[in-house]
Amino acid sequence: MKKKQQRIFATILAVFISVALIGSAVVGYFVSGGIPSTDSSGSKQTTSAAENYQAQKVRIEAMTQQAKADPSNVQLQITLGNEYYDAGVAAQEVAPTEVQGNFKHAIEAYQIVLKTNKDPNIMVDMATAAFYSGEDDLADKTYKEALILKPDSYNALGNYGIFLSQAKKDWAGALTQWQKAQTLAQNSADKDRMKSLISQAESQLKGNPATNGLSNPNPALKNGVANPVTP
């Protein structure tokens, strides 16, 4: 699950960059190059991505039928949710009208899993899918639940911060999450990622002193300590 968490964080970070940092002073740090190349490599990559997406849809259909025949198979539901999630990411490039549908199906699969397995990693996956599909209330609620169970999750804190900054325009809350995540970073790349996001949040707050958010952006955590929960 750790590899998948890292992939998810990188994906949602890419969306954050494209939405929030275009035109900002730091966009050059994240986005290399300028004018897109006019050679044929771009069209070949698009064709390959489209073919891969269609193949993925075939896999998803097969897994969906398996899940109907074996509804109690939790691992199958996790895999199905992951496939729908990845399809949602892929569809952004090759089938934009199918993006939200894929993420909503991912949410449905993850919800089935979470009925019997309160895995905070899966909660983060579901919250991120909800964020992508525009279900902000569900995303907010699920990020908080994940952080109750695992307050030291680098990816939950990082993704929740991006959600707060983009969906809630709560840069103060986002800053809090990213500062916590930075202390948990396991390598220099993760530290640098948080450093860049923290810098962006601080820049936003200097330009707009109003926090536009909650005084405690994550009520699941008080003074850095998770509230006790009953499984």
TrEMBL record:
The keyword Membrane applies. It comes from the Bacteria. Residues 197-218 have a biased composition (Polar residues). Residues 195-231 are annotated as: Disordered. InterPro entries: TPR-like_helical_dom_sf. Keywords: Membrane, Transmembrane, Transmembrane helix. The chain crosses the membrane at residues 12-31. The keyword Transmembrane applies. This is Uncharacterized protein. It comes from Desulfosporosinus metallidurans.
